[in-house]
Amino acid sequence: MAVLDLNLPPANPLGDAATERLNVVGLTRGALRDALIERCAVEPKKARMRANQIWRWIYNFGLTDFEGMTDIGKPLRARLAEAFTIERPRIVDRQVSKDGTRKYLLGFGPGIEAEAVFIPDVGRAGALCVSSQVGCTLTCTFCHTGTQKLVRNLTAGEIVAQALAAKDDLGEWPSGKDDRTLSNIVFMGMGEPLYNLDNVRDAIEILSDGDGVSISRRRTTVSTSGVVPEMKRLGEETAAMLAISLHATYDDLRDELVPINKKYPIAELLDACRTYPGVGNSKRITFEYVMLKGVNDSDAEARDLVRLLKNIPAKINLIPFNPWPGAPYECSSWERIEAFADIVNRAGYASPIRTPRGRDILAACGQLKSASVKERASERRRRELAAASAG
Ligand code: SAH
Ligand code: SF4
């Protein structure tokens, strides 16, 4: 898999190309220290202290310029502003659902757009669902992102910036530790995070830092379709919680729904779960199971699911299928989902159904982006028509 080729542009797409200023957002603390020495002539023995100051202003107080960093002398502030930027993505679209779900379409550059969704009352207070790629190389048949080609990986800065943009919108500065609305991060937006693991790792390091956004690794969940060879490294390098998009209990069906299963079948995937670093009763793996009418929602499959996960510290998350235009599936009926959940429940798994959120604002992954692309296509058509009739 030519994953490395996809990290384009390499370092700093949000930076200011004309002056080659470097975007600070997305640099780990260590990288920020080095950059201060290299680009701003900060004395090496003071670099750690300066990095700490800047870090707190950006990630604890939400500053987007150096001017307001009042504990840094004016001359250095000016040098910082010449060398660096503190970037936010453009909010291309923002929708707020009746249930409080907030969905953002964020622009990182021409044609580079990804979604983030804030969902209240998930986790300790509320969860932000972030994207790791624009599009996806995988082609899960029930997923709208799967119909969109991969454009590129998001950089660590672009992943972090999704959380900063949501915090701006929620008014969540400074980053208090109690009493927050954004308490959890889930990598369940667009893309396959394990095909962009280096950037996902750096983003988690930055977002979990206790001197800033401070969303702990235990409150950070990375969902994968099952990229088995990267799972161990995910655990070792991020200590994040793991979620697996299982969706089927036998290989024939999973081959169809989640085609990466042909490469890494269910038995291999579950083996990698059993040995996921840190896994245990206090660090359970979440298994996601999308409810598709007449496809994977029988009582027998509920029993098989329970049997399959028997020796794995697991949580089960039944997700009502979110339909999208042209989708080849329907969502199971509510009665079917409840019957399925009952079997799972009786096997000892608590509250297995994930309630559908933000239904009134196009909730399924990838939909907001495609809606905006469509809008622009129709705008273009209108313009062309107008031009033709004018001519
Ligand atoms: N690529 C990763 C993470 C992004 S998808 C993965 O596949 O796990 C996040 C979750 O949303 C996955 O469990 C995915 O299966 C689920 N999902 C995708 N499309 C969906 C839809 N239309 N309805 C319900 N769940 C969906
Ligand atoms: Fe990609 Fe995940 Fe969608 Fe599959 S479910 S196409 S891996 S984003």
Please describe the topology of this protein.
Elements: E1 22-23, H1 29-40, H2 44-60, H3 74-83, E2 84-85, E3 90-96, E4 102-109, E5 112-120, E6 126-129, E7 133-134, E8 152-153, H4 156-170, E9 184-187, H5 197-208, E10 220-224, H6 228-238, E11 241-245, H7 251-257, H8 266-274, E12 285-291, H9 299-308, E13 314-320, H10 334-346, H11 367-390
Parallel strand pairs: 1-2, 6-9, 9-10, 10-11, 11-12, 12-13
Antiparallel strand pairs: 3-4, 4-5, 5-6, 7-8
Bound molecules: S-adenosyl-L-homocysteine (SAH) and iron/sulfur cluster (SF4).
S-adenosyl-L-homocysteine binds at residues 142-144, 188, 192, 223-225, 245, 288, 290, 319, 321-322, 364-365.
Query: CATH homologous superfamily name of the largest domain?
Result: Aldolase class I
The structure class reads: alpha/beta
Identify the CATH class of the largest domain: Alpha Beta
Pattern of helices and strands: EHHHEEEEEEEHEHEHEHHEHEHH
Taking all Cα atoms into account, the compactness measure Rg is 22 Å
Percent in helix: 25-40%
Low-pLDDT residue spans: 1-12, 364-375
Q: Could you please say which CATH topology of the largest domain applies here?
A: TIM Barrel
Number of strands: 13
Strand content: 15-25%
The major sheet is characterized as: 9 strands, mixed
**Anisotropy-based shape:** elongated
Total of domains: 2
Largest sheet: spatial strand order? 3-4-5-6-9-10-11-12-13
DSSP helix count? 11
Mean pLDDT: 88
